[in-house]
What does this fold into?
Amino acid sequence: ETGVTQSPTHLIKTRGQQVTLRCSSQSGHNTVSWYQQALGQGPQFIFQYYREEENGRGNFPPRFSGLQFPNYSSELNVNALELDDSALYLCASSSWTSGYNEQFFGPGTRLTVL
Amino acid sequence: GIQVEQSPPDLILQEGANSTLRCNFSDSVNNLQWFHQNPWGQLINLFYIPSGTKQNGRLSATTVATERYSLLYISSSQTTDSGVYFCAVEPGRGSTLGRLYFGRGTQLTVWP
It folds into this structure.
């Protein structure tokens, strides 16, 4: 069974640029959620994708957008990068079954905005 | 949204000691998970425990959903247990199914 993978591992961008982060869900999972973790904080929910549609969104501006593909992999896009976007970005995959929804996380992408 | 509070924020132990980490949450939950975040940032699943008690080796967890808290027990701690422990909950109502709300974590340091 293949776990959740993310790419790239690290990324350095400058303010105003755009970035795309990628996530492959665990085998058999159909739902991907994205989280942002600032230094010293717990992860914060950005949004979730299920069956290629956005299925819920946290308190993040529209310049954070995403996609899910037919193979359930996902992308997170951030436009007009700001310094505060520097963080660890985590994706989680899960597969809803009756009463069971355990989330499994990837290793993360560390984004630095200069 | 639901509030998740973890205590203590920091814990320093000598190898071999036992510890208890606590997670309080402010509303009913569908799901509660404990994670260990390693130094590279990956969240490692420890327990999926919306209610009841589970054990896995030196670790065990108990969730009392009616009283809105969960406890993570670490026995005979080892230096490799060091890191940040997070509790995360999925609210039972009024939120995206599967959305997790995290506490701020407990930073555990185990000295040899």
Q: What stands out?
A: Chain B has no helices and eleven strands.
